[in-house]
Structure formats: structure tokens, C-alpha cells
Write a structure and sequence with these properties.
Blueprint (H helix, E strand, L loop, with lengths): L9 H14 L3 H19 L7 H21 L9 H23 L1 H17 L6 H23 L16 H23 L3 H19 L9 H20 L5 H25 L4 H22 L4 H4 L3 H13 L23 H4 L1 H5 L7
Helix pairs in contact: 1-2, 2-3, 3-6, 3-7, 4-5, 6-7, 7-8, 7-9, 8-9, 9-10, 10-11
């Protein structure tokens, strides 16, 4: 009896190509392929289908790396920096040209042109930078994953579906992807210097990871799970360090201490097993850097610290995220810039919560 091999669908082929490019760190090309896959998936399943969640997550993740790469090329400058001045110069040139036309062709023709330009500006939306687009893609994936959780909840207890600790094996994979999605949303917000939003997303990521991998106190927790949680605590500490609001620094200290406890547990396990010496050395270096970070957080920032420029802030955050505890070597944590954004007004401080899409409204 002969068997017929199943040919990959066009969507499968696109995803395979994109995955290969992503593995090679060809992020712009991978993002282009994921964009094609996302469009095809939406065409096949419908715009709001939960079947699109994975593709949107992968597309948003690739686009995040594209944004980071471009930001590094620009020297860590915030997206769109310098555009305002260029736009002002362009506006001045436009005004000069308009005055000449009014003199030559009359006020009536200039008025008609103004109306046309105004209508064109109203129809055109300003282009989104890669960080913003990545955040929106990942947030849409979050909404779709959350919808999947709600529909898979027991009919007698639908309200428990979104509680991170209430899950069974059938929803574990979805919750793992939700944890990854919140984690990436937090990283995007860190890069975009939207620290209050980063706190919200990284807190959610930590809650899901605690439910999936334990709270750091269980005896059955393995070294990899300790590493995952230490990374989550570390990232949340970064967000709190730069966030506005009372108690942010204390929360940063608390999370760094939790990250240190996790690394110590990993180090103890590695020492008991007589494992890889390089791994033990890396853990010791991670621990040293985290302890230095803890001492830094316990010291009030000086005026000189507050005057550090944004370029240093962004490069410091990226340097730290490139070397999160356990999984990779921590680099330059003790030199992380400690600049906070201006304290926002009451109305502005509510913006991050308002920006988060609510599932019920989708």
C-alpha cells in the first residue's frame, strides 16, 4: 500500500520560510514573510479569528527585533527623533511657496489648494514606527489568546479562565504563549520608554510564569524554571526602576531580590551536580551583577544621575535585556542608566491602562 505525502499549504510554506530567516537572525526578511503569512491567515480564517494568534505573535516578535536593530543603527535614538524639526522646516518651505502662489494666482486659487491639502492630511494617518506596530500586533495576539482561554473554560466556571493559576493541561500551551506575549509587550514598552505600561505587561507575564513554573519556593522546581522566573523578576525590576509613581523603587528592589534568590538556587543546584564549570562561572557573574544592581537601587539617584541622556538610557536597558539572568551572561548591569521620565499628571498616568485592549470589547 502506497502513502501519499501531504504537501505543505501556502501558509505553512510561508511560516517555514519565515522561521528559517528568524533563526538566522535575518529579522527584516523574516518580518516580511510573517507579514505575508498574517495576511494569508486573515484571508483564510477571517480577521478576528483566534487561528491568527500564533502568526500575529510571530510577526510582532520579528518586527520587535527589526525595531531594536534600527534603533541601534541610529545610536539608540528614540523612534522619530529629529523628525519634528524636519517637519517644521518643510512647513516653512510650504508656507513660502504658498505665499508666492497667492501673489501669482490670486487668493481664491490658494484657498482651493489649502482645502485640498487639509482633506488629504485628514485622510492620511501618520506612519507608525516599528515598535508601535510590534506592540499592536502582539497586543492583538494577546486578545486572541485570551479569547481562546475564555472559550475553553468550563461552562460552570467561566470567570476562572483568566486566572493564571487556574488551568489544566489542555490550556497550558496557550498560557505559555500568553506569558511570552506579555513578556514581549513589556520589552517593547521598555524600548519605547513607556515604563508604566511595561510594569503592567511584565507583571502579567510574571503571574503566568509563576503559575506555570511555580513561585520559586517549590522543591520540584528545576533549574530551567528557576531561570525563567529569575528573568521575569529582573525585567519587572527594570520596568519599576524607571516607572513613575510612589513605591516604584521599592518594587524594583523587591523584584531584584527575587531574581537574586532564583540565581542562587540555580547556582546551588549546579554546584551540587558538579556540572559545567563555565555554566557555574556564568551564574556567579550573574549573581555578582544582580547584587551590584541591588545596591545601586538602594542608593537614591543623584542630580547627575537624573541628567543622563535618553540614548544612554535606551542602550542601558538593551544591554541589560541582552544578558538576562541564567539564560545568558548579564552585561553592564551596574552601569545601567537611572533616568526617570517626568512624573505624569493624573490623566496621563491612566493612559497605559486605557490603552490595553479589553477582550469584552473585541
Amino acid at each position: 500500500m502506497t502513502t501519499t505525502a501531504t504537501l505543505p499549504t501556502p501558509l505553512d510554506s510561508l511560516l517555514a520560510q519565515a522561521s528559517k530567516l528568524y533563526a538566522l537572525r535575518s529579522y527584516p526578511e523574516a518580518a516580511d514573510k510573517y507579514a505575508e503569512a498574517a495576511a494569508l491567515s486573515a484571508e483564510l480564517h477571517g480577521e478576528g479569528s483566534v487561528e491568527n494568534a500564533d502568526v500575529l505573535f510571530l510577526y510582532g516578535r520579528a518586527l520587535f527585533h527589526v525595531a531594536v536593530g534600527r534603533s541601534e543603527v541610529l545610536g539608540g535614538a528614540a523612534p522619530g527623533a529629529g523628525d519634528e524639526e524636519e517637519e517644521e522646516d518643510d512647513d516653512d518651505d510650504d508656507d513660502e511657496q504658498e505665499e508666492q502662489e497667492q501673489g501669482a494666482e490670486g487668493a481664491e486659487e490658494a484657498e482651493v489648494k489649502d482645502d485640498a491639502e487639509q482633506r488629504q492630511q485628514e485622510d492620511e494617518e501618520p506612519p507608525k514606527d516599528d515598535f508601535e506596530q510590534a506592540w499592536e500586533l502582539l497586543d492583538l495576539a494577546r486578545v486572541l489568546y485570551t479569547k481562546t482561554l475564555i472559550t475553553s473554560a468550563p461552562t460552570d466556571a467561566p470567570d476562572t479562565a483568566l486566572t493564571p493559576s487556574n488551568f489544566d493541561a489542555s490550556t497550558r500551551s496557550i498560557r505559555e504563549r500568553l506569558a511570552e506575549t506579555y513578556d514581549l509587550l513589556g520589552e517593547v514598552s521598555l524600548e519605547s520608554e513607556n515604563f508604566d505600561q511595561a510594569v503592567l505587561d511584565l507583571t502579567s507575564a510574571l503571574e503566568y510564569k509563576q503559575a506555570l513554573y511555580g513561585n520559586g519556593e517549590g522543591e520540584e522546581q528545576n533549574e530551567q524554571e528557576q531561570g525563567i522566573l529569575s528573568e521575569a523578576y529582573f525585567k519587572l525590576a527594570l520596568a519599576y526602576e524607571f516607572a513613575s509613581g510612589e513605591g516604584a523603587r521599592a518594587a524594583a528592589i523587591e523584584n531584584i531580590e527575587a531574581a537574586i534568590a532564583g540565581v542562587k538556587a540555580c547556582l546551588a543546584a549546579a554546584s551540587n551536580d558538579d556540572g559545567d564549570k563555565k555554566k557555574t562561572q556564568r551564574l556567579e557573574e550573574n549573581l555578582k551583577d544582580l547584587e551590584a544592581k541591588l545596591e545601586e537601587l538602594k542608593t537614591e539617584p543623584t542630580n547627575e544621575d537624573e541628567e543622563k541622556d535618553l540614548e544612554g538610557l535606551r542602550s542601558g536597558i538593551r544591554s541589560a535585556l541582552e544578558g538576562v539572568p541564567v539564560e545568558a551572561e548579564v552585561k553592564d548591569l551596574s552601569g545601567l542608566v537611572r533616568k526617570k521620565k517626568k512624573v505624569e499628571t493624573a490623566d496621563e498616568s491612566e493612559e497605559p491602562k486605557a490603552k490595553k485592549a479589553k477582550v469584552e470589547e473585541e
